[in-house]
Amino acid sequence: MKISKKVKNILNISTNVEKIIYSYAGLKKHLIKRNHYDVFKYFKNLEEIINSPDFVGINLNVNNISLEYVKCFDKNVLVAVKLHKSKDKFYIASMYLISDYKLNSRIKSGRLKIVDKNSK
């Protein structure tokens, strides 16, 4: 998986780093620790969420580059992608559901931006 040029353009980020990695076991352990059991059924959709998100954004509450990918299925699934400390790749840091209210608030505030499926 990788961060597309389209997402970089939408978010106005300039980095040559594209690669996104994740450890299935590590992510699963994190989700259990955080009680995010409700997102396990979306594990199979990780590539779809990254490759074809409905919304993308930047989390400004962290020091490094932290991106948010949201895909709307029967629930809104947010995947948090952070720049690795080596600065040569990104990694999937977390995954959780967000409510329609929170999704709409983040769109209204500009934190999340709509991904136009027709543009490249």
Please bin the fraction of helical residues: 25-40%
Assembly state of the chains shown: single chain
The low-confidence parts are none
Number of helices: 4
Number of domains: 1
Spatial extent as radius of gyration: 14 Å
Overall pLDDT confidence: 91
Q: Architecture in CATH?
A: 2-Layer Sandwich
Instruction: Tell me about the largest β-sheet.
Output: 6 strands, mixed
Structural class designation: alpha+beta
**Pattern of helices and strands:** HEHHEEEEHE
Structural key phrases:
single chain; 120 residues; YaeB-like fold; six-stranded mixed beta sheet
Description:
Helix content is 28%, strand content 28%. The chain is of the alpha+beta class. The chain has one domain (5-113): 2-Layer Sandwich (YaeB-like fold), CATH 3.30.2310. A six-stranded mixed sheet has the order 1-5-4-3-2-6, with helices on both faces. A hairpin with a 7-residue loop joins strand 2 (55-58) and strand 3.
What does the secondary structure layout of this molecule look like, with pairings?
Layout lengths: L4 H7 L8 E2 L2 H10 L12 H6 L3 E4 L7 E7 L3 E8 L6 E9 L1 H10 L2 E3 L6
Parallel strand pairs: 1-5
Antiparallel strand pairs: 2-3, 2-6, 3-4, 4-5
Short description:
It is built from 4 helices and 6 strands; from the N terminus they run αβααββββαβ.
